[in-house]
Amino acid sequence: MLFLEFLFLDVVLGGSITENVVQKNISFYLMQISSYANQSWAQNRGSAWLDELQTHGWDSESGTIIFLHTWSRGNFSNEELEDLQLLFRFYFSGLTVEFQNRASELQINYPVDIQVRLGSELHSGEITKGFFHAAFNGLNFLSYQNKSWVPSPEGGMTAQKVCDLLNIYEGIKETAYYLMNDVCPRLLLGLLDAGKMDLQRQVRPEVWLSSSPNLEPGRLLLACHVSGFYPKPIWVMWMRGAQEQLETKQGDILPHADGTWYLRVTLDVAAKEAAGLSCRVRHSSLRDQDIILYWGHGLSVILIIFAVIVPLVLLIVLVLLCKKRCTYQSIS
Ligand SMILES: *[C@@H]1O[C@H](CO)[C@@H](O)[C@H](O)[C@H]1NC(C)=O
Ligand SMILES: *[C@@H]1O[C@H](CO)[C@@H](O)[C@H](O)[C@H]1NC(C)=O
Ligand SMILES: *[C@@H]1O[C@H](CO)[C@@H](O)[C@H](O)[C@H]1NC(C)=O
Ligand SMILES: *[C@@H]1O[C@H](CO)[C@@H](O)[C@H](O)[C@H]1NC(C)=O
């Protein structure tokens, strides 16, 4: 496999992508993933997210909020955060007990996975109405609309029964409403402000090309790797001159542990047609200066690097050797 890594081989002025790339809508939501294996085994996982960036975790052993960033407290006081922590602790333990007590009454068969997403969104600077969605074994189950619980069609009779049951309790409805329409919007704005430095950072991608022989003889699968960029929106295309290669296949944008992103974009070509292809990358961190890497130009660049570096290393070795000698001479 040919593996070439070099940065900014060619930089040209491109069209203005920055406006398209700037994100105007952002959501903040709490997520719950609960698994019930049987009558006696349950696991609750909790987290909070700003779009695709996790801001908080939940330690279910100790029942405490995990703050994942220095700015994860937003502008909330310790008292308010402790109140929330207590609320979640109470909710998780209460839900588990209630679920296990009522599973047979509601004709629920184990194992069960429950996912809940609750939060609010900022659209072009305006907070919109909060949302609450619950899924049951991967299917929509119920949501919260107009201050009451509404079953989803996929949820069937069970969802109807659960909603009927939940709608009796004003306290639960009010708590959900308060979380969606008060806590989440305030935390969303507070986090955006406190985390500004982190959230508005621009990290340039590293780009490199590789190829592997495709399944068919005489064909190559060219891959353009774009790694370590932030924020997530990006445009990557295989090109021949100014012509976008429409057979370009884009993979999923995958997260790195440090919050930056990785993307691999491939093109299946006849080996003899590979020369002259290039991979073009547009990203807000690059402003209008797209990165363009040409396929096949790599070797000459590496040769140039060798041509510069090898004599340099030799020179350094010579200098070091001379120094050593000089020292010995002065001692003797
Ligand atoms: C933001 O949300 C509004 C309302 O849903 C939508 O019309 C608009 O296209 C969205 N903008 C972006 C950049 O996604
Ligand atoms: C319940 O499920 C857990 C986890 O899968 C398992 O370890 C345990 O043996 C099960 N208990 C019963 C009573 O089936
Ligand atoms: C919301 O509920 C109120 C009273 O329960 C009702 O009058 C109103 O029509 C409902 N609105 C929607 C959009 O369902
Ligand atoms: C945090 O900031 C938001 C938005 O500026 C504001 O509405 C809220 O009152 C502030 N304080 C708290 C404790 O939420």
Automatic annotation (TrEMBL):
Keyword tRNA-binding annotated: no
Pfam families: C1-set, MHC_I_3
Predominant localisation class: membrane
Location of the Ig-like domain: 205-292
UniProtKB keywords: Adaptive immunity, Disulfide bond, Endosome, Glycoprotein, Immunity, Immunoglobulin domain, Membrane, Signal, Transmembrane, Transmembrane helix
GO cellular component: endosome; external side of plasma membrane; extracellular space
MF-aspect GO terms: endogenous lipid antigen binding; exogenous lipid antigen binding; lipopeptide binding
Stored PROSITE patterns: IG_LIKE (PS50835)
Signal peptide boundaries: 1-18
GO biological process: adaptive immune response; antigen processing and presentation, endogenous lipid antigen via MHC class Ib; antigen processing and presentation, exogenous lipid antigen via MHC class Ib; positive regulation of interleukin-2 production; positive regulation of interleukin-4 production; positive regulation of NK T cell activation; positive regulation of T cell mediated cytotoxicity
Recorded topology in the membrane: Single-pass type I membrane protein
Protein name: Ig-like domain-containing protein
